[in-house]
Amino acid sequence: MMPFGIGSYGYGLNNGYGGAYSAAVGSGAPVSQTPETSKAIVNPGEDTTVHPGKRVSPAECQTCKERKYKDGSDESDVSFQTAQHIDPSAAGARVRAHEGEHVSNAYQKAAKNGGKVLQASVAIHTAVCPECGRVYVSGGTTTTKIQYKNEDNPYMKNMKNRDRGLLSGMNFEAAG
C-alpha cells in the first residue's frame, strides 16, 4: 500500500477496462428447442430477434448463458471468490452489492488502524456481447483513499513545526 492507502479492487469480466478482472466459462446445460427454428433457446424469456451483424439472438446466446463473475482482488472476505453465474437481470445489483463489500472493508480497515477514509467510489462497467449484441454488466471497480496519521514520520513533524510558526499569534482573545 502507498502512504495514503490508495486501493482499487476489480470484479467481473475482462472487458478491456484493465484492472483486476477475470473471466470463467462454465459447462453446458440442457437447452430447449423452439418449433419455429432449429436453434436452441438457452436463455428463455429473452428477445429472439437476431440483430444486424450478430450471429444469434439474446435468447440463443451461449456466451451470455455461460458468463460467470469472479472477484479479482486480494480481499478474501468478499463474495465471488470462485467464478459464479449471475442472471443478467440481477447482475447490476449483485455487482453493486459486491463492490459495496469492498467499501465497507475500507471503512473497517481505516477504523482499525486509526485512519480516515478520504474517498470511496464504485464504478460499474458494461460491455456488449460480441455474439448477440446484448449490453450487460461486465464488472465493477472500487477505489478507496485512506489517510493514516503518523506522528513519528519526520515529514509530519516538520509540517507541524512549520504550521506552528505560521499560525502562532493569529488568534487573539482580549480579556476584558
Explained architecture:
The protein has one domain. 23% of the residues lie in helices and 27% in strands. It has helices spanning 62-66, 91-112, 154-167, and strands spanning 7-12, 24-25, 32-33, 40-41, 67-71, 84-85, 115-128, 135-148. The strands form two sheets. Strands 1, 2, 5, 6, 7 and 8 form a six-stranded antiparallel β-sheet that branches. It has a two-stranded antiparallel sheet with strand order 3-4. Strand 7 (115-128) and strand 8 form a beta hairpin.
Write the layout of secondary structure elements.
Layout: E1 7-12, E2 24-25, E3 32-33, E4 40-41, H1 62-66, E5 67-71, E6 84-85, H2 91-112, E7 115-128, E8 135-148, H3 154-167
Antiparallel strand pairs: 1-5, 1-8, 2-5, 3-4, 5-6, 7-8
| Low-pLDDT segments, ≥5 res | 1-38
Oligomer status? single chain
**Helical percent range?**
10-25%
**Major beta-sheet overview:** 6 strands, antiparallel
End-to-end Cα distance: 53 Å
Shape type: elongated
What's the mean pLDDT score?
74
Number of separate strands: 8
Give the tally of structural domains. Answer: 1
Count helical runs.
3
Helices and strands, in order, run as EEEEHEEHEEH
- Which strand-content bin applies to the residues? 25-35%
- Judged by helices, strands and strand pairing, the structural class is alpha+beta
Radius of gyration from CA coordinates: 25 Å
